[in-house]
């Protein structure tokens, strides 16, 4: 959603604050959640040539990759939790989780 009028944002957050006050929601119970996905697997060099206005419509994933969903969240008091990783596989080596988790904490 593209909004250029700052009053839209100001009014939105005023409504959020009214709801928080009405229900007594404290900073420790108010979270921002960020979810994003990435492809993991073997890396191959490739180039795709498309029109500049169409570039966002193309995502190339070869057969050696699969999607992983990463969920991170932080509350309004500044407390962040370790990221959640959602894999297709049934198990994950702890060493691999530590490597991924460490690299996400720097994002």
Brief write-up:
The protein is α+β, with helices and mostly antiparallel strands and 107 residues long. Helices cover 28% and strands 23% of the residues.
Q: What labels would you give this structure?
A:
flat; alpha+beta
Summarize the helices and strands and which ones pair or pack.
Layout: H1 6-23, E1 31-41, E2 65-75, E3 84-86, H2 94-105
Descriptive report:
It contains two helices and three strands; from the N terminus they run αβββα. The two termini are 24 Å apart. The protein is an alpha+beta fold. The radius of gyration is 19 Å and the shape is flat. It has one domain (31-105).
Please tell me how large the radius of gyration is: 19 Å
Q: In total, how many domains does the architecture comprise?
A: 1
Low-confidence runs (pLDDT<50, min 5 residues)? none
Terminal Cα separation, in Å? 24 Å
Number of helices: 2
Helix content: 25-40%
Average the pLDDT over all residues and give the rounded result: 75
Q: What strand order characterises the main sheet?
A: 1-2-3
What is the string of helix and strand elements?
Answer: HEEEH
Class inferred from helices and paired strands: alpha+beta
Oligomer: single chain
- Number of beta-strand segments: 3
The largest sheet, given as strand count, sense and whether it forms a barrel, is: 3 strands, antiparallel
Estimate what percentage of residues fall within beta strands.
Answer: 15-25%
Shape: flat
């Amino acid at each position: 959603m593209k909004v250029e009028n700052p009053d839209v944002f100001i009014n939105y957050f005023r409504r959020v604050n009214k709801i928080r006050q009405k229900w007594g929601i404290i900073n420790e119970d108010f979270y921002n959640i960020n979810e994003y996905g990435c492809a993991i697997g073997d890396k191959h060099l490739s180039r795709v040539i498309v029109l500049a206005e169409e570039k966002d419509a193309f995502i190339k994933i070869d057969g050696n990759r699969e999607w992983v969903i990463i969920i991170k969240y932080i509350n309004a008091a500044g407390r962040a939790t370790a990221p959640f990783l959602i894999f297709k596989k049934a198990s994950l080596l702890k060493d691999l989780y530590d490597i991924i988790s460490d690299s996400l904490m720097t994002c």
